[in-house]
What we know:
The chain is an alpha/beta fold. It folds into two domains: 5-176 and 212-238, 3-Layer(aba) Sandwich (Rossmann fold), CATH 3.40.50.720; 178-211 and 242-279 and 289-316, UDP-galactose 4-epimerase, domain 1 (Alpha-Beta Complex), CATH 3.90.25.10. It has helices at residues 14-25, 92-111, 145-163, 185-195, 215-228, 246-257, 284-287, 297-310; strands at residues 5-9, 29-34, 52-56, 73-76, 115-121, 167-173, 175-177, 199-202, 209-210, 212-214, 233-238, 244-245, 262-265. The protein has a seven-stranded parallel sheet with strand order 3-2-1-4-5-6-11, sandwiched between helices. It has a two-stranded parallel ribbon with strand order 7-10. Helix 2 (92-111) runs parallel beside helix 3 (145-163) and helix 6 (246-257) crosses helix 8 (297-310). The radius of gyration is 19 Å and the shape is globular. The site of nicotinamide-adenine-dinucleotide has 29 residues, from helix 1, strand 2, helix 2, strand 5 and strand 7.
Amino acid sequence: MSKKTAIVTGCAGFIGSHLVEFLVKKNYNVIGLDNLSTGYKKFLQNIDRNSFKFHKVDLLKDNIDKYFKNVSEIFHLSANADVRYGIKYRNKDLQQNTIVTHKILEQCVKNKIKKFIFSSTGSIYGESKEIPTKENCAFPIQTSLYGASKLSAEALISAYAEAFDLKCYIFRFVSILGPRYSHGHVFDFIKKLKQNPKKLNVLGNGNQKKSYLHVIDCIEAIWKSKNFFQKKVNIINLGTNEYITVKKSIRIITKKLRLKPKLFFSGGKRGWIGDNPFIFLDTKKVKSTGWKPNLTIEKSVENTVEYLISNKWILKKK
Length: 318
Ligand SMILES: NC(=O)c1ccc[n+]([C@@H]2O[C@H](COP(=O)([O-])OP(=O)(O)OC[C@H]3O[C@@H](n4cnc5c(N)ncnc54)[C@H](O)[C@@H]3O)[C@@H](O)[C@H]2O)c1
């Protein structure tokens, strides 16, 4: 059987680089597109170049026509993935998350590409009253520009799928952990503790409850779901059936680092505007594929700490 060709946008990022490795193992040819704004070429160094071709390209600014010929699937992961600075840089989420998605959808139409796989987020649920939150919960009020930009992208994707010969898979992830993790709370805490091991400033009151998923479990879930659900528009939550508080997360991190810092909380239910005090997604739909996560949240946090300890270069992040 001839090999399928897939495009992975954001291929040099935390999740994208694992996805490229996975697809190559599944016998795909992969074209990876990334501008290296938050990704690293280093993450791609062990991938077989016979099955993978990397192009440094800015999906917002550059002409991207030439990359999309004879492609059967697109995994669209490139984005501004940092939720916190939306209010400060108010154009960024719209441009990088919504406009770029529209540009890629246009490529699907022009090149008759049949499958579009999208990394959305649990942030689109805002502060849902329904916990665990189902995919079809009451239409949520948006609390971050990141969530709003991803929900707008979801709307465009489903409208294109309805209008054209395109099947779409929209995955709403909880926070993802694991090797190559380069942004998020574990990263921030370790970076701060490296600067001062005796003290840790925590945003909010530390009682925020969050759910996490290991990156390898995340990719397995995408793969299983993509082969299982066959509607035109498939929307799937990805997470575990656990959550932990920020305080508990800090205990796991500091135990692993063998540190006992004094904790200082900025106070309030939310760490910043748009921080959701309780994220816990209903994952019955993804489990109906037979998928289940292999790692608990505790193990995923520990694995992330281990990675960051042995890859301190990443803490110096651009
Ligand atoms: N990591 C998480 O916890 C999490 C949770 C929910 C959703 N997501 C989504 O998953 C996807 C991947 O996230 P990640 O954690 O791997 O983030 P990441 O920042 O590591 O990866 C994003 C990649 O996209 C690239 N990129 C950004 N803008 C680009 C542009 N204009 N042109 C080309 N490349 C560009 C970056 O260089 C980077 O390599 C994102 O869409 C993110 O919103 C991530």
